[in-house]
Amino acid sequence: MESSRPAPASLPFLTFLGRPFTLDLRALALLRAAVAGVVLLDLGIRSTDLEAHYSNQGVLPVAALYDHLWTPYQFSLHAATGLWQLQALLFGLAAGCAVALLLGYHTRLATLLSWILLVSVQNRNPMIGQGGDDLLRMLLFWGLFLPWGRVWSRDARQRGPVLSYAYCSAATVAYVVQLALLYWCTALLKFGPEWTQQGTALYYALSLDQLVLPLGKVLYPYPALLRILTLGTWYGELLVPFLLFLPFGVRRARLAFLFLTLSFHLGVSLTLFVGLFFIICSVAGLGLLPASTLSWLQTQALRLWAYWQQHAAKTRQFALHWPRLPWRLEQQPTGLGPATRVLLRGAREAVVGVLLLYVCWWNLDGIATTPSLLMSEPLRWLGYAFRVDQHWGMFAPTVFKDDGWYILEGSTPDGRLLDLNRGGQPASYGKPAAVVSLFSNDRWRKYSENYLFVSNEWMRPYYCNYLLRKWRENPANPPLSHLVVVYMKEVSLPDYQVAEPTREVLCECQ
């Protein structure tokens, strides 16, 4: 009978092809800790607007969520209540799970709970979401299938020693492909001439006062430089991901990928107000760190640990009760037999493979023009249910040109006009020195962007009434008879031309 095992001559070829997808367990551990840190940071930012963004007294009551933004396949624990106090409890639970993930304590369970709670809070208010949220969600999703708690974790103390830090599976393939999809899809979606021919996309991006930061204003007057940066961005997003799939020079290719993408996102974060997007994208690549870099980091960490133990332990008893280093592993026998483990591993690989194909198809559907490649609506339930749906259309296909600033015009009974957006100062229609400073965080900036679209006209009264109610709750504020949400629209024009702002009334409430 013919053996099903591959011929020995084929093994080197398979190993060669697997090199781009072989990751270091220590890199995965760093990825786990960094993702947990970002989840905690995200929770901290979101928690400043518990009432505004997640309660029935805020800008999106649960009833409005179900009426306008819900699909029958979604779930959200946060949508089960309209009380901000219960939202705070869910936020605290999510923070606890993220801390457990950071420490690598019951890592698989902590990953699952963190993913569920992240999906839940994102589903509660889609109007404040951005591309970084999709990436953070997918990192946790693929993390469910990655052994990112195998080393440098609390769980590692109860596992046997690793024979090799090198690890390759369907999950590592999914992780690498997901990073490539992020850049490939955003490049292919940028098919407007501003990106591919004229090189004016960054000029228009830096024309947006709602986004531009001081360094962006410094670069703005140099059209030739902006054209080079625009074309460099587009070609970089299109070509740099190929470095991830080279089966030779893997270490150098990965370091080049990390350097180029980190430099790119750092440049974006210094010129445009993009919230956590820069941090999430930078963290996402940590799983690619090569073994040589990780060995150096581990050596430095061991030296710091030894120094701390020598100088910080006040008593011998304190030192004895301090937990040992997570990479000092102990043997713990597992209850599963070899055959069962092989069967479970095969099932996991098959599930991850199917999910990866589905994710690739979803992304292909977003950029394809051929009807035969499009995903039919009945097949989309899986993407919505497990939130593997994703769209990487950042500044695509062209840059948004309807710029401007908000004036929250409140009228007092004695006829005065106050701007609530500036703490109740007399209303003025001139452009603020820094429009971006009017937003307390990127969630509010994204909400204000969605607020403009005619298709989202239904959401406007909720925001107006929320602002008026919050103003009246403070007895020190002068009384208001009604409030008008005004948008001073200033369309970005080519060649540094200045458009005359126009006053648009988006909503009125009493």
Give structural notes.
The strands form two sheets. The protein has a five-stranded antiparallel beta sheet. Helix content is 52%, strand content 7%. The chain folds into two domains: 20-386, no CATH class; 402-509, no CATH class. Mean pLDDT is 90; it is low at 1-11 and 315-333. The longest helix has 30 residues, at 338-367. It is α+β, with helices and mostly antiparallel strands and 510 residues long. It has helices at residues 10-18, 25-46, 50-54, 62-68, 84-103, 107-124, 131-143, 170-189, 193-196, 201-206, 214-219, 223-239, 250-271, 277-284, 291-312, 316-321, 338-367, 381-386, 442-452, 460-473; strands at residues 23-24, 166-167, 402-411, 417-419, 425-426, 482-491, 502-509. Keywords: Membrane, Transmembrane, Transmembrane helix.
